[in-house]
Every structure is written in C-alpha cells, then in structure tokens.
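Deviation from plan, reported transparently: SN-glycerol-3-phosphate complex.
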Amino acid sequence: MRRRSVKFFIDTANIDQIKDANDMGMVDGVTTNPSLIAKEDGEFKQIIAQICKIVEGPVSAEVISLDYEGMIKEAIDLAGIADNIAVKIPMTIPGLKAVKYLTAEGIKTNVTLVFSALQALMAAKAGATFVSPFVGRLDDLAQEGMGLIEEIAQIYANYDFDAQIIVASVRSPLHVLDSALLGADIATIPYDILKKLASHHMTDKGIDAFMADWKKKNG
Ligand code: G3P
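Because the crystal trials were delayed, the predicted structure below was used instead.
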C-alpha cells in the first residue's frame, strides 16, 4: 500500500459550500460533473473559473462530448481556464484515446464513471492523472463499492502507476473512513457528508455540560 496522505476533495459546484469547506482547511481539490453544475445558477465555464480562483488544488470539469474530437476540443478549452483544471473524461474507448492525447499535452485528466478494476487499470495505462470509481452507485446495486477501491489500490501498487484514486459517489462518513483505511489517495465528499464527519453527539454533550457548569458559577 502506498504511503501518501489522504486528500479531501469536495464534490460540489456550489460556491458557498466550497468557500465554507475551504475555510475549514478541508478542500484539497474540487470535483464537479454535469449534474452538479446543472444545480447551480450561472454559466458552466464561469462557475469553474470562480472555483479555480478559490481553490489551489485540482478542479475537475467534465466534457460533455462523447466522441474523441469533441472531447479534445472541449478539454483544451477547459484547460485554458486555469492551471489547476483537471479535465473529467468518461471511461469509454474514445475517452481513453483522449486521455492518452491530453496527458502527452500536459493536461491533467480525471477518468470518471469507473465501475471495475479493469477499467481503472486501462485508465491508468492511458496516463490518467486521477481515476474516479463510483462507490455509492455500486453499493446501490448491492455490490461492494469499497471492495473495488481495494482492488484498484492493490493493482496500482503492484505496478507503481502514478494515477491517483478518487473515491467518488461518496454517500456516508463510512465511505470516507474506509477510503483512508484502504489507502485511497483522495475521497471526494459532498458538503453535507463533510459536515457529518466533523460532528459527534458526545462533543455536543460535552460542550453543553461545560457551558452549564460555567453558568452555574458565573451566572
Ligand atoms: O463524483 C461523482 C459523484 O458526484 C457521483 O455521486 O451520488 O451522484 O452517485 P452520486
């Protein structure tokens, strides 16, 4: 298992959520996708540019073309927004070709919609910077999402691939804990889950007791 520190990306295109999480020191990067962008007001490239100004780490912006030429055109356009853009490319055969080309051009890529270890192996061989297995959507099918992360981490360690694993489609704090235990490089976390990670009822109970004791003495 590789020894790197686990990074937290935030899985949202909402500027207020990104700013708040960034102020907590919890944003090593941002991932977006067309569904997340569709929830926000504003134009796609402007939203991405705004995020890139707030966050130093990689910001994933997804192409919507499905053909090779379209993906390349969009990717070059997106990469021009800021130095920290990682272009999100779907895990398809034209997508693999696009990753190979973009990597040679020095453009960071994030291969998305990965649901098997062999897809992750191909993405790494094509030269992907990041690979995003969707654990929550596998859990939805009664398949162990985190089992896939374990397989990919083992394969990448076997062959010293540079591709970083982004645990995506995170649905619970347990997914984040398991990501760290399994040695995944990154978990991309929705804002509401990030807040859940920080809270514990014993912390709240302890604060209430301290405040009550303080008031008893000091009024
Ligand atoms: O990063 C991918 C993620 O946004 C997908 O999550 O919950 O739609 O499966 P979900």
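The radius of gyration is 19 Å. We consider this an acceptable substitute for the interim report.
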